[in-house]
Amino acid sequence: MTTNSPYLSISMVFLALLTSGSLIVVSHAFSIKEATIRDIHLAFKLNKLTSRQLVELYLGEIHKLNPKLRGVIEVNPDALKLAEKADQEREAGAARSKLGLHGIPILLKDNIATKDKMNTTAGSFALVGSVVPRDAFVVTKLIKAGAIILGKASMSEWAGIRAPTGWCARTGQGKNPYLLSAEPCGSSSGSAISVAANMAAVSLGTETDGSILCPSSYNSVVGIKPTVGLTSRDGVIPLSPRQDTVGPICRTVADAVYVLDAIAGFDQNDKATREASKYIPRGGYKQFLNPDGLKRKRLGIVRHRFSNTANSTQVTEAFEHHIQTLRQQGAVVVDNLKITNLDDIVERDAGGEELALEAEFKLALNTYLKGLITSRVRSLADVIAFNNKFSKLEKTKEYGQSFLESALTTNGIDHEVKSALLNMTKLSRDGFEKLMKEKKLDAVVTPAVYISTILAIGGFPGITVPAGYGSNGFPFGIYFGGLKGSEPKLIEIAYGFEQATKIRKPPSFKNDSV
After folding, report:
1. At what angle do helices 415-428 and 451-458 cross, to 10 degrees?
2. In terms of Cα–Cα distance, which of 180, 210, 205 is closest to 195?
3. N or C: which end of the chain has fewer CB within 10 A?
4. Cα(177)–Cα(181) distance, rounded to whole angstroms?
5. Tens digit of pLDDT for each residue in 15-36?
6. C-alpha angle 222/170/207, rounded to 5°?
7. Arithmetic mean of pLDDT over the chain
8. What is the pLDDT of residue 299?
9. Sign of CA dihedral 485, 205, 509, 16
10. What secondary structure does DSSP assign to 154-177, as a single string?
11. In sequence order, which residues have a C-beta less than 8 Å from that of residue 428 and are 6 or more positions away?
12. Which superkingdom (predicted)?
């Protein structure tokens, strides 16, 4: 069992490249700080930048910042080789070089499988050395779109089940780049940390309940939680097939949309994509990057419970200002709305979400583990035994074993679980869906992440955009949520808000407490 430094593999790859002479670090005129996909492609076009140089720059930032932030678990040892291939394609004028993500480095959350030299572990030592049967479907889509897989982002271990937010055995505690003492939120913490700190151009995360929206908000980046099934979960270490979704975490709405365009689509290995693929608009999502996207949108403001957040005074003041911005940009704001059963929904035990997740996790994880070509664990029981045996050797913290052990006792989708699932369906229908339809809303707007559970149990989409910073510099976002398939409207709303406000700023790496 290894107890190596959490970022040793990154340093070793970087230093090996240096000593081999294959990596020549030079001063490039192009700066990756806050660079967008559009900026990068323009630099390519003007011959101001190559993909190899771009990857070198990101490797340099990872080498410099990751020992402090711990947002990256490992880098792809073939990243430079892939970058050189992209440069060759661009020089030859290959059709592939015209694709939307061509030559763009992307980090993947460590639960998204890659059939390469990297691990896919959900942040756990239990899966180090395991061999996946194939790339995750979304990875295949990214590669087809020309993206360079730069590495794996850290995550709250087992999607937050066995760890506090941002902590996993392989890296230790991830740090919020705006306020190092503050939590980065989870479980896609490393994806958000890394793009916020400019250690990658763009990233992918996953969400079961809040794991894209929360870290995006807390790290002042944009996160899109798609309608469940809009993006395939094949090859993604699961928590709940009913709620799991894969989505982009980026610094701008436009970049997130470019990534969403690349990964959305039908996959025969994920039956949920068959139904959800009907929502994908002809021509993709880029057409909805409309700076006037707020015009004539009906937006419902739900305030109940949503004031309970960090920096509540600053959040409240900023939110009131943002409501005026929404109106000024042409939106119809319907204020002081209430989701009647909100309290039941946001309490997992009351709504039945926790009970359902335990049963679904056991079934889905066992299926995933059995499908691996090589693995030291083949079931949830094996994972629990591994944790019990090696936790002291790994010097890991004892978190989340109770959830794992409780999940182990479940017996499939039994009567009790079915009742919980029916209750969540009823809560969605009589709460969020009813409000959206009765008030004819395009989206619900809130300043706090509690909305994630509402969206999670119904499989609904949501987007968060940077909305401000507290007096200590801690970021917060604004959330837009809609009904299934409403991504086009949500993108217009989010992009319109972003362009009207342009709030995001680079991180400060402060050490102050919250």
Report:
1. 120
2. 205
3. N
4. 9
5. 444 433 344 444 457 899 999 9
6. 30
7. 91
8. 98
9. negative
10. --STTTTTSSSTTEETTTEE---S
11. 345, 454, 457, 458, 460
12. Eukaryota
383 vs 388: CA distance, rounded Å: 9
The side-by-side arrangement of strands in the sheet containing 298-302 is 72-75, 148-153, 105-109, 202-207, 245-250, 222-225, 462-469, 475-481, 443-446, 298-302, 332-337
Structure tokens at 3: 């107890």
Enumerate the H helices of 153-281 as residue ranges.
189-196, 213-218, 253-263, 272-276
> Please, which residues bridge with residue 462 across strands?
225, 481
State the DSSP H helix or E strand holding residue 153, giving kind and residue range, or none if neither: strand 148-153
In angstroms, the first-to-last Cα distance of the chain is 36
Catalytically active residues are: 109, 187, 211
Residue at 227: amino acid letter: T
| Strands, E assignment, 314-403 | 332-337
CA dist 334 and 233 (Å) reads: 35
Instruction: Round to whole Å and give the CA distance between 361 and 380.
Output: 9
H helices, E strands: number in the chain? 19, 13
Pairing mode, if any, of strands 298-302 and 443-446?
Answer: parallel
